[in-house]
Amino acid sequence: MTGEREAIVRRQLGLEPAGLATRMRLAATEALTMGLAYATPLWFARSPTPVPAETIWQFLTRPQLPPIQALVDHWPLAARRERLLREALSVSHADGIQYHYDLSNDFYALFLDRRFMFYTCADFHAPGDTIEDAQLAKANHILGLLDPKPGERILELGCGWGSMLRHIHAATGDAENLSGLTLSHDQLAYIRDNLGLRAEYDDFITRDYGVETLDKVYSIGSFEHIKPDEALPLYRRLHAALRPGGRAVFHFFSLNGTDRWPTSMLGAQAFFPGSVLALHTDHLAWAREAGFRLTHDSSHDYRPTLRAWFDRLVENRAEAERLVGVQVVNKYLAFFATSWSFFNLGKATLHRLVLMKD
């Protein structure tokens, strides 16, 4: 690995390969200060040797005894959780995005679908569906919700590796009026080098969109990175940017329940520093307050996608370890398993919204 890549890997882990005594000390400290939701996946991530995949999956997805689950859900206590998460929100959008996504395009290609490279929830409709089948089904569903037409000015917020930009361009043939925004240098380079579509390095959360400059706007898996205090101003700017009759389609997961500072969001800091999900009820209220009219809200099961990514990374583990190292692969396997459990416990739900500007 290059010196730059080694620096990224070290940043992913927070330390050099750790022996058992160091790992135990770190795990105990983090469990006390940040809780088990944060400390447990990092225990596996920091192993200097490959952790067996099924060991990771079984440990992180198995149901816990009620007292253990209560400890996971309620420690640290509420006031400390809120303080820690508010501190975490100080991480800039660019730093948080680049921490997770600017690792290696080739690494992500090892486990994402081979047609689009979608890094978002897919739609599995039949037991025999592959991740390629399911991501195409997702893309077609979102295409139907957006209903793009040639000549419409359409913007994607957080465009990843250009997956949906490609699908819309194939449907409309109009590349001139289609564009995307990203804060990932690696993703931007991929789009420009491989797709020839318009993408721009900019922060969609703070961007000034102007007034009535867009016909349609959409996002697939980027609203998770909006800090809660930024959401209502963003909804308002997007509403102002759409022309009358304009449409917004947003695909994202959000918290269930009423706790705005759950322990699961402390755990998320190990993978997405600076990102704290909002309640789904808050998203609906913000959209309504901004002037949008909700016409569609569907929920989708993220678990099959996470298991598919886990399995494909296991299949390609040797090459993944060559690209990013043993510990980063351990970390991503723990990430997929932890995320599966997060959805299995009903902590959050993946939604697709259609919002209209009358």
UniProtKB/TrEMBL annotation:
Pfam families assigned to the protein according to its UniProt record, in alphabetical order: CMAS (PF02353)
Assigned keywords, A-Z: Lipid metabolism, Methyltransferase, S-adenosyl-L-methionine, Transferase
InterPro entries xrefs: CFA/CMAS, CMAS, SAM-dependent_MTases_sf
Keyword flag ATP-binding: no
Recorded GO MF terms: methyltransferase activity
S-adenosyl-L-methionine recorded as keyword: yes
SUPFAM superfamilies, A to Z: S-adenosyl-L-methionine-dependent methyltransferases (SSF53335)
GO biological process: lipid biosynthetic process; methylation
Family the UniProt entry places it in: Belongs to the CFA/CMAS family.
Name listed for the protein in its UniProt record: Cyclopropane-fatty-acyl-phospholipid synthase
Annotated organism of origin: Phreatobacter oligotrophus
UniProt lineage: Bacteria, Pseudomonadati, Pseudomonadota, Alphaproteobacteria, Hyphomicrobiales
